[in-house]
Structures are given as structure tokens and as C-alpha cells.
Amino acid sequence: MNTHPQPELRNHTLVVTVSSNDGRPVLDRRAYESLAKTFHEAADNEEVRVVVLRGLAGCFCLGGDFSEFLDATKHQKLIAAVTDLFRTLATFPKPILACVDGDAVGVGCTILFHCDMVIASSQSTFRVPFVDFGLVPDAATSILAPQKLGYAGAFRFFCLGDTLRAEDARALGLVAEIVPGGSVEEAALGRARQLVKKPVAALLQTRGLLKGNTGELCERIDQEISLFQQALQDDTTLRRLQRIARLAA
Fold it and tell me: What stretches pass through the bilayer (predicted)?
């Protein structure tokens, strides 16, 4: 049963929910495919000028679906879906805003680095435990995180696995604004309304100039995915992931 909220176009703003199709706050292969399809279509749709990403109530996204990491028969399709989404985010030509109310973990956090603005509630947290799992960062965050957080901030965040509170995330530059819980989506939509009133060509050209070389990001995505795939073939990493999956069950 599909309980995933469908993308909703509101006054040139496409509101997209980050979750699995069955309503869990995680991304599985079908969710990656669905998000990539949504972004591909939004890129070509002149009615869409801004995309706003949101999570489910009380949680932005808890990361990838561990069961797919542990099933080698699913790796090929999973890797293809993940690569497509990350490349699509890296090259997406229109502004992306995110409203985070709750936890943003793993890929639920790394996709935020592709957003032009992240608006969060004060109770939100941000964590990327890839190294703890025996994995490497994804979504070209090995480039984007040092750019946004500075090298020292990125090292602490990714290598130590520090959990960032909203205030810490804002101080480092991951979060642009903090608003009271319950008003995060409206705040993001308010910023989106400001953007859709701008001259379209000038807005997109300016954003493109600020973004710079997206080809470099796509090359890094491929490199990260290759290392990620190698890690999923390592027995020690798989045993670690199995232990974590049992604890999470």
C-alpha cells in the first residue's frame, strides 16, 4: 500500500515528502527512484520554480533502508537508483529548500547539502554515521561538506560522527534559519513565495553561477558510490551493519 504523500504543486512551488512509499521515514530503492523521477519532471516543468523538501511529522529522514544494504541481490538496482538521485540533485537547475522538523540522519542529512536553504525547528538534529557503519559519505558531500562547514567542521561531523543540534548546524552553515516547531513548513513556503516572485531567468542564472561546476560533483558521486559498493562486499562491514540492524529492529 502506498501511503507516501504525493508531490503537491502550490503556486509554482513543488512540495515533496522524503519517505518510503509505505510511509516510513527512510529511503529505500523505490523511494530513490520516485524522488529522482519527481526531480527529473520538475526540472522540465516550467510551472515548477522552487522545490521544497519536507519529512514526515516529527522526523525528516532516518537514512537508508538497512535491509537493502544487507541483501546482495538488491545492490545493483539500489546503487543505480541512488546514483540517479544524487546526480539529479547535483545538476538540478532550480532552487531547493528544505524544512527539517526532527531528525535528519545519513542520506536524510546529506541530501540537505544540495539544498539552497535549510530551515529547521529548534528540536531538529543532524547526524551522518557513515564511518561508524564502515561506509563513506555519499551525495558528493565529501566536496560539499568542507565547502559549507569548513574542513574542520566537516571532519568532526563525518569522521567523529558528532550529532549537530539545530543551533550548531546553523553556526556551521548547514542550517540557514531556525523557527519554532510546527511552523517550519510554513517558513519554508514563505521563502519559496519570495523566490517565485523573482525574474525566473535571473534567478536560475544566478543560482547556476553560485553552484559552479556540477560535473565535479557528479564525478565525486560516482567515486563515493564505488567505495560504498566495495564496503558492502566487505564481511566485517556487513557484520557491523547486521548488528546495527538488529539493534534498530
Answer: none
User: Which of 217, 88, 64, 238 is closest to 141 using CA atoms?
Assistant: 217
213: three-class secondary structure by DSSP = coil
User: The domain at 8-182 falls in which architecture?
Assistant: Alpha-Beta Complex (3.90)
Task: Give pLDDT tens digits along the chain (249 positions).
Answer: 556 789 999 999 999 999 999 999 999 999 999 999 999 999 999 999 999 999 998 899 999 998 898 888 999 999 999 999 999 999 999 999 999 999 999 999 999 999 999 999 999 999 999 999 999 999 999 999 999 999 999 999 999 999 999 999 999 999 999 999 889 999 999 999 999 999 999 999 999 999 999 999 999 999 999 999 999 999 999 999 888 888 776
| Interstrand relation of 117-121 and 164-165 (parallel, antiparallel or unpaired) | unpaired
The domain spans of the chain are 8-182
Nine cell digits for residue 242? 547486521
**Neighbour tally for 116: CB within 10 Å:** 17
Contacts of 119 (CB under 8 A, 6+ apart): 97, 98, 99, 100, 175, 176, 177, 178, 179, 184, 187, 188, 191
